[in-house]
């Protein structure tokens, strides 16, 4: 078995989010190790948070690292060896290990929730998931933040654009707040615009469908219409990009969580933080949708989203960023 001294071992500590999660750490360790991303993409239902952690573990292991999850014994024997803390803030409660720690991704929703985070000398750096979260967290923790992303092995994702299509769009509704307002004033007019053009659509509501249903829909659809106030990374729409399915996204430009009002000015944000003209198109307001939709449909055969994922969101680069950050804190 590899040991920390040879520079290949990475000690990760993981705890799922959940305010009432009082399980033992031994149980948490089992829950952390159990998820396998290949099972997920074949239909296992998990949150994006769980998937992101599993993608991190797989990326590091695929590049030759011995990744150990919640291995307190090894960390205690080597108090100067770095550790990575990933997950909910409950992981920080009562944290006793003296090891230098790389924090994130995840943990706090806003840096204002932990203004004195780095007053603890064990905590060295914080991973954030996108440019807009980098701007937000760096404004509170200058010099402490590193941008990281969960990376894709493009070979594990089929090119679904080549498969026979039976619908034009998946409308992926991930609107989190004010659904009672969003449905009649925003979603329904968008559906009407699609119908008026004779475009077929399948609506999937976030949290109301199984992941296997989403993957099946990517097989059958020509494009994804992604409606979400903001994303820190956005694994669902990136799974479409990896599958070579172009994305038309609502990207209004600011953070939707009302928690921002507790801490100051409205936060600039994106619903598609990793995106380029190869991936598709975006619109900010409802009155821009018709024109953007027509432009998108006129170019639908020209987009190359799979290439974007291979070049910008690779598993190898994800592993490199984390590895350099992890050993850099030692």
Automatic annotation (TrEMBL):
Source superkingdom: Bacteria
Keywords: Glycosyltransferase, Transferase
Broadest EC class assigned to this enzyme: transferase
GO molecular function: glycosyltransferase activity
Annotated SUPFAM superfamilies: UDP-Glycosyltransferase/glycogen phosphorylase
Protein name per UniProt: Glycosyltransferase
E.C. designation(s): 2.4.-.-
